[in-house]
What does this fold into?
Amino acid sequence: MMLNKKLLVSISVAAALSLGFSACMEGSASPSVSSGPSTPSIDGGVKYPVKNEKTGPYYVNTQFDSAKINHGRVPTKHELEEWNSDIMPDGTGLPEGEGSVEDGEEVYESKCVMCHGDFGSGGGGYPTLSKGNAYDLHKTLTNQRIKPDTDGPVRVFGTYWPQASTLWWYIKDAMPHPMTDSLSDDEVYALVAYILNINEFEIDGEEVDDEYVLNREKFLKIKMPNVDGFEPKIDGPNGPENVRKYFANPKNFGAIKLKDASERCMTNCQEKTAKVVYIQGAGISDFHPPLSSVRDLPKEENKGFSAEKVYTESCAMCHGADGMGAPVVGNKAAWAAVTSKGMSKVYSNGINGINGMPPKGGADLSDNDFKSIVDYMVNKSK
It folds into this structure.
C-alpha cells in the first residue's frame, strides 16, 4: 500500500500528539472502555474518545493536546514543489513529455541493463522487469504450489503492479542507481515505453510496438492487468476513508472467528474452532544422507582471499560498465585521474565512501582486503 506524502505528514503529527497520553492507570481501574462513539484508525484500530480526562483506563494529558508545535517552519513554494514529486494514478503530478520505445531501449542499455539484465530479465539481486506477456502471466497470480514442479505466480511489473504511475514516479525519483533524479522527463517516458514494450502491453487497443511513442495523454490510458488485484482501494480523495471502513470490518481480512468483533479484546479473543489433525502411518523414514544428531558447525576451508573474485561479486556492478558514475576498470584515463590524488587518498575515499559509493562499496571487508581490491582494479587499468 502506498500513501502520499501529505497523508504521511498528517499521520506523523497525530503520532506526535499521541505522546501526550500518560500510560498511568489507577490501581483499581478495570479495562473498561470509555462510553461514546469510537473512530476507526487507518490500520483498523479504534480511537476511543476522551471522557473525564481518560480514554479507557488511561489518563490523558489534556494540556498537551492543546499545545502548539513550534519546531520548524513553513516550507517555501519552491521547497514544496521540489519535495512534492509524487505521481498519482489519476495523473496528478505527471508532467508533459514523450519518449519512444526505441529511445527507451538506448537509455536502458546505457543506464539500466547492468542491474536489471537484458530485456528486463533481472540478475545480480535486482528485480526482474519482465518475463513475457503481462496479460497471459497475470493469470499465474492465482497459482498454488501444491506439487513440487508446479509453477508459482509471476510477480513482475506488468503482471502484479496495479498502477503504472508508480513506475514513472520511481524511475524519475530513484533511478538510475546511484545517479538518482538525473533523467529528463522525456527519458522517463521513453524508459516506461520500453518496459511496457517488453511486457507486451496494449494501450487503448494499440500494441506498444518498437515504433510506439508514449506521451502523457497515452500514459493516462494505460490499464494494468492487476488494477483490481489489491484490497482495500486506496486511490482517489476517499482513499483513506475507504481504508478505515475496510479494516473496521474484521471479516474483510480473515478475522472471522473472533468471539465478538465489536468488543475490545486483548487476550483469548478467538473462538476455539480449529481442529488439529495429525498424520498417521505416513511420513519419511528413509533419509539420504541419514539423519544425524551432531550439531557441530562445518569446518571452514581457508581458500585464501581473492581480490578478483570479490571484485566480480561486489564491485563489477558499478565499476564494470559505463553509466554508473564510477571509474570503469580498464579505462586508463579514468583511473589515471583517480590515482593522481595519491593512493592513500584513493584508499581513504573507498573505505569511507564517496559520492554515490557507500563505505567499502557496501561489502563486509577488512581495510587490507579492500585495499587489495583497489590495487586489483588499478593494475587492470594501466
